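---------- Forwarded message ----------

FYI, see the TATA-binding protein (TBP) record below. Original note from H. follows.
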Amino acid sequence: MTEASLQSNQEQISKMARSIKFKIENYTALANFDSEMDLGVIFSNIKNSNVRTTNTCVQFDIFNASTQVKIYQSGACLVIGCQSLQQVEQSFKIISKLMRKIQQPHILKQYSIYQTLASGFFPRPIYLELLFKVLQNSHYDPEIFPGLMYRNQEKDLPFHLTIMGNGSFVIGGLAGEEEIVKAIISLLPDVQRCYCEAK
């Protein structure tokens, strides 16, 4: 294959990958308070909070229990389950306000998206038995679970994927939409080889 045809093939795969529809289900974001936090004070002042002694954090929910907050003694703050980037921003504003209210000194300047969970569909059903043979680091045992689970261990694009025979998938471990598209691009050649024939 010539360099020009290889580039054309890569462009075609990229175009096809971008046409695959997916939806962001939730975001996990990470911030730092720039100081150690008094977990005892946080626990005793925030309703419905609980202490996780195994990983030294206080955990509580916001937004009617749809979003989980974990504050660590080190000052790290993890927000899990936000359904939009706006909700991520709102979450940290609420947390910062709570910390001021209970007189926990902190500086919360910025946050980063730590993980994104998305769901979507490949355009055709997939032979999972064949995909299992094609994808390294995959697990498929239909007697226990009907989907194939795959973990990409490349350092620059680590992610995990669950894919069903009808083409539906859930993908996680990535920081945002562009990385999800890159992951789909990396998977597409192998997935296309395993499409079921159209009837």
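H. also flagged this: The first strand starts at residue 22 and ends at 32.
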